[in-house]
Amino acid sequence: MEECVQLLHRYSDQSVFLVISNDASLDERSISKLRCFINVEYIYHFGSDNLWKKTKGDAANNIVRFSQDESCLHILPSDVSSQKLENLDAETQRLVLKILLIEILHRSPTTSQAKEDFLTYSESKYHSDHVRLDQIREFKKSYNPDNAILWYTKGDFASRILNKTLRSYDLDPMFKIRYFISNLYSHLDTLYRLQLPTLLCDILRLYRGKLISRKEFEHLCRIIGTYVITNSFVSCSIGEPVASAFSGKDTEKSENQISVVFVIKNLDQKNVSEPYAYIPKGSKIRDECEVLLSFGTLFKIRSVKKHEVK
């Protein structure tokens, strides 16, 4: 605690979003001490359901609870970048805070304890699934951070638990899988920096095929012109036929399902906080011409068009 206090004094001229690990003791006295710092805007304690929001000049605090959302996209107002956090509505504040926490997880130290937390949590989630437990044992024996993308594209326990956890925004599990999040992000960032001068310059469009509900499709039609943000790593193809196949257009569907191909244009190659990379050599599926986008990538919905079946 004393070391934390010293750091807060050192950064007294900057606003601070304070995240405290789940093994740190945090009682009401400690919280009160931390809230005495004018520069501490928010305090989040992993292992707790609460985020304490401290308003400057006001000793009162409001508890902000993070709701679960299974959607792959979150809506972000177009003018959010020009506003102060305190001036945004409650839902947008929650979204911005989620993005901040994701950035923290990206940069979490990949310690032996972080790896142990990931494996222990994975084993607890798949304790009765012998196939997944075998995959976890193989991970223990052969995993290397330089092969994080390979493990992600296998489609086994690692990618399943990663995507389910990221989409739920349940913060305690997110902290427990920080090891694989950080490894995957770092591997993707390394490829991004290597490919930026060459391969990425040739990618003009990306395609992602998906089978979605009619309700989700109608929602996309209503929010044309707004920004959306991914809350998971997203696999895309540089070829439309591959994406079209993944959309399920040739499969039997219920009346409530719609095949969609997302067309992604004008990727910002200079935004290093949202890396993406062409991964035919790192992917388990080599014929898909796959490009992997980092979660937290921002897009603007330009249009929604219906293609008639011929």
Characterization of this structure:
The protein has 310 residues and is an alpha+beta fold. The chain has two domains: 1-66, no CATH class; 73-301, Toxin ADP-ribosyltransferase, Chain A, domain 1 (Alpha-Beta Complex), CATH 3.90.176. It is 38% helix and 19% strand. The protein has a four-stranded mixed β-sheet with strand order 1-2-3-4, covered by helices on one side. The protein has a three-stranded antiparallel β-sheet with strand order 5-7-12, with no helix packed on it. A three-stranded antiparallel β-sheet has the order 8-11-10. The longest helix has 18 residues, at 178-195. 24% of the residues are buried. The model is unreliable at 49-85 (pLDDT under 50).
Strand content: 15-25%
Average of per-residue pLDDT values: 75
Backbone shape: globular
Strand adjacency order, main sheet: 1-2-3-4
- Helix fraction, binned, reads 25-40%
Give me the strand/helix succession.
HEHEEEEHHHHHHHEHEEHEEEE
For this structure, what is the CATH class of the largest domain? Alpha Beta
E-strand count: 12
Structurally, how many domains make up the residues? Answer: 2
Q: What's the helix count?
A: 11
Classify the fold: give the CATH topology of the largest domain: Toxin ADP-ribosyltransferase, Chain A, domain 1
Give the name of the CATH architecture of the largest domain: Alpha-Beta Complex
How large, in whole angstroms, is the Cα Rg?
A: 21 Å
What separation lies between the terminal Cα atoms? 67 Å
Strand count, sense and barrel status of the largest sheet are: 4 strands, mixed
Low-confidence stretches: 49-85
Secondary structure category: alpha+beta
